[in-house]
TrEMBL record:
Protein name: Prolactin receptor
Gene3D superfamilies linked to this entry: Immunoglobulins
Pfam families in UniProt: EpoR_lig-bind
GO MF annotations, alphabetized: metal ion binding
CC annotations in GO: membrane
Family, as annotated: Belongs to the type I cytokine receptor family. Type 1 subfamily.
Localization in the cell: Membrane
Amino acid sequence: MSSALAYMLLVLSISLLNGQSPPGKPEIHKCRSPDKETFTCWWNPGSDGGLPTNYSLTYSKEGEKNTYECPDYKTSGPNSCFFSKQYTSIWKIYIITVNATNEMGSSTSDPLYVDVTYIVEPEPPRNLTLEVKQLKDKKTYLWVKWLPPTITDVK
């Protein structure tokens, strides 16, 4: 047995005894746009292999050669990437993957193909109220009132 192979087997057996392994495969959970001008993608990280693990979201746009890293990991919370107006293009397909890396190796999610026009979910209305009202002729009806979402342009 060659010394390189023996060393590799030794490292593998030590890492298995310590419960350490390469990270599990991350999974992109969802991408959502409230307005076709921005969007966020969230992922489930998978196993960290018992080691500190770094996650990075990378994307490219269909028909283009360049690959980019997530522009904003903070705005939408942990395990997410926010794309501001500057990074959002409608009518373009984004090819998105999440990479997990630790001392023992790396793992990459399956790619997710995202067209921003298909992931629009507007914010819900605010201050929704429902009242039961009665007309003079004793007919009853429901009166619903609400305010538009604070971050949506409704003009």
